[in-house]
Design a protein that fits this description.
Structural class: mainly alpha
Largest sheet: none
Shape: elongated
Order of helices and strands: HH
Strand content: under 5%
Helix content: over 70%
Radius of gyration: 24 Å
Number of helices: 2
Amino acid sequence: MGVAGIGIWQLLIILLIVVMLFGTKKLRNIGSDLGGALKGFKSAMKEDDAKADDADDAKSTDAADEAKK
């Protein structure tokens, strides 16, 4: 038994039906579009984290400068 009671043969049949319905070219395009979307999401998250780190550094620097006064 596999995931939720679905065995390997059932998964292969489902995969075969999906390939027959959509075709390999369409599935390849869907996969590349999904990969591009995930890559864009990851880069946006990295940019957001970098901006947050820069803002935190600026706040801590300002707080340190005011503490010295």
